[in-house]
Structure formats: structure tokens, C-alpha cells
């Protein structure tokens, strides 16, 4: 019985010590999106301010704990008038809901560099489970000796699922603003010592 307890404690300790903390390198990361405009084109934008952390439980990042927080008021579509509208109660209502958050539930390797990331996305006061495709680009050591890891995150969400329902009907029957939002994030992480 004592041997079993010792082995359990040893395994638990090894598991805890195997975890590695990774910090977001903000200068080499971005969160971008595109959405249909009048059916005939797309408008693109980004969020300028966000934080993120990853706790890796293995070298290949499988089952890592991943959390991101985005400053909703940092939305930038390169048009001040449109950005002000997006921050208003018609869309993000940033005065009432200043943050967009993501917390992972699972991070699974599919094959090679391809992964699936599932978690809870909270936006505009609504939480929904979402799944993103992730490409793990590997690790490399910077000239200053910092170990870096790179990921590309790709996915789609329906903004109306989160209460962002403002729209106008066009003469051709289409919608002024698309409901499906395409998301592409490039994430670079620094291994913490």
C-alpha cells in the first residue's frame, strides 16, 4: 500500500513538473477577421490588444490549457466611423462587454502539424463552444536564446450566435453585413524559464 502511494505521488509530481508555461509574444502575434460586405466583397479587421497564455502538458502541446483575452474596444477595420459603430450597442457594445475571452476544453493532434482546438468563446455576454483548426509550425530558438513556438489558428463563427445581430437588407435580398465571420490568428509564444 505504501509503495502504491509513493508511486502515485511520484507520477503526480512528474506530471506537475512536466508542465511548461508559454507567454504570448505580442509583437509577433495577430488576431484577424473577415466578413462579407454587401455579398460582393469582404471587409477585414483585427484586434490590436490581447493577452494569452498556454500551459503545455507535453512537447507536442496536446491537451494544453489555453486562455486568451481580447480588448473588444481595440477592434480596427481601418475606418474610424465603422469602428465606432462596431463598438456601439449595435455590435460589440464594448462599454457593457469590454472583453472577449477564450478558454480551451481540448487541444488534440489530428495528424502531422494539424490540430483541433475546442473551447468556450465568450463575447457580448454570450458563451458558446467553438472549434478551430490549428497548424503547429514547430519551435525554434531565437538569437537571444528564447525558445519560440508558432501556431496558425483558422476558424469561423456566426456572429448572430453571440447576439451581434445588426444588419440591413439589400435590394437584391442579400445582407449588408455577413453573419459568418472568418478568423485567422498567427500566434507566437515564448517559453518561460
Task: Based on the model shown, name its key terms.
single chain, 193 residues, mainly beta, Lipocalin, 8-stranded antiparallel beta barrel, 2 helices, 11 strands, globular
Rg, nearest Å: 20 Å
Number of domains: 1
**Considering the protein shown, what is the CATH homologous superfamily?**
Lipid/polyisoprenoid-binding, YceI-like
Order of helices and strands: HEEEEEEHEEEEE
The chain-level mean pLDDT equals 86
Structural classification: mainly beta
Number of strands: 11
- Tell me the overall shape: globular
Amino-to-carboxy terminus distance: 37 Å
Label the CATH architecture. Answer: Beta Barrel
The largest sheet, given as strand count, sense and whether it forms a barrel, is: 8 strands, antiparallel, barrel
| CATH C-level label | Mainly Beta
Q: What is the CATH topology descriptor?
A: Lipocalin
Description:
This protein is mainly beta and 193 residues long. The chain has a single domain, classed as Lipid/polyisoprenoid-binding, YceI-like (Lipocalin, Beta Barrel), CATH 2.40.128.110. It has 2 helices and 11 strands. The chain has helices spanning 2-18, 80-87; strands spanning 20-24, 30-37, 41-47, 50-56, 65-71, 75-76, 99-111, 114-123, 126-141, 147-158, 177-191. An 8-stranded antiparallel barrel has the order 1-4-5-7-8-9-10-11. The chain is globular and about 60 Å long. The mean pLDDT is 86.
Gist?
By secondary structure, the protein is mainly beta. Helices cover 13% and strands 53% of the residues.
List the helices and strands and how they pair.
Layout: H1 2-18, E1 20-24, E2 30-37, E3 41-47, E4 50-56, E5 65-71, E6 75-76, H2 80-87, E7 99-111, E8 114-123, E9 126-141, E10 147-158, E11 177-191
